[in-house]
Amino acid sequence: MQKLGGFKLPHFFNYPPYFTLQPVRETREKQVQLWKELILDYCRSQKIFVIGLEEDFPLFSNPVIERSLSHEAREVFLSALVAEGRAEWMDKSHKKCLILWLRIQAWADYILNFVKENGFEDSVMTVEDIQSGIETRGTELAGIDRCVLMRALRLLEQKGKAAIFKGTSTDDEGVKFSA
Amino acid sequence: MGNIFVKKPKITDVDRAILSLKTQRRKLARHQQQLDAVIEAEKQAARDLIREKRKDRALLALKKKKTQEELLKQVDAWLINVEQQLADIELASKQKAVFESLKAGNNAIKAIQSEINLEDVRKLMDDTEEAKAYQDEINAILGERLSAEDEEDVLAEFENLESEITLQSLPAVPASSVPSTEAARKTPKVQPEAGLQVEDKEDEVLELPEVPTTTPVPATSDDISTKATRIKVLEEPLPA
Questions:
Q1: Interface test with B, best of A120, A124, A169 (most B CBs within 10 A)
Q2: Coiled-coil stretches, from where to where (chain B) (predicted)?
Q3: What are A166-178's pLDDT values in tens digits?
Q4: pTM attached to this predicted model
């Protein structure tokens, strides 16, 4: 099995037909499904949150078989993800896509669980600490995209489980979790 | 999305202080990394310059590296201070939490105790004692009745036994011709089959201790003393 940055690629990655957008509806649906799963899995393992369509995303081309996904194909697959709610377009022109291999709600739950497990209730953390601090090392939270994190935190705030605040102007944004 | 007033955790000044400290900690850590990078770069530059045989410039690079290292030491110390304060704040807040819960526990005990009146308890114990004393009295009275009857029986039995014993002791006298005192001592134990043995013993008794049978007291004492002197004589030569 081929590997891409430590990620094991599935078999279909080496079949040229999968890199061309299939005309037949049934095969197209199967193809889209496989690619959707692949994108999500890959992003989860590599902690990738944003895919730029114009950029050279390693997943979208296989140099071994000399095939790569066309722009149209990429847009089709990513749109399918957006339709499923696992991704969001960051701009109108569909140039950048935010990949939510964990939905925002799932992220919020994950954060809440993390807080409970480590006894961080009633304590204050800076947002950056959550992103790249020592406490989150080894969890899914390490290296999380700031945008995704803020949205998850705001969701928690709505539920009353957290409060986002800022002290003085030089301070980082902070979060206080409640028990 | 109807509920505007969702219960969010309240942000206190303490929280803001902690946030400041944590931000500072982060900034210092970043500064440390920067300094590390600069130090490494200067070291590398110095190496290159030495290779190019530009000693004075190499020395300059090393001096720069030294100042950066001093600054790094300073930053390290500040970072430790910040960490220390964070730890202290956390400790203080936990102490406060413990104190609060102890206070609440204390109040709970007081509330429960206030429900039990001390006077009521005393009265209850007194009532119980009274009842017990009453019960004991009843027992005593009942008991008296019984023991009065028993006592009569016991007395009767006692008189019976006494008479039995005295009857037993009388037959001993006519059984032997020996001086009464010794015989009286021996006979309670005697059985008819052992009568011969007793007589033999009596003979032996008669043979050996001739001295005790004689009545005059001074004589016995004389004999004893002569015996003693004889022993003394015998003993004397030994120590010599």
A1: A124
A2: 14-41
A3: 877 777 788 888 8
A4: 0.58
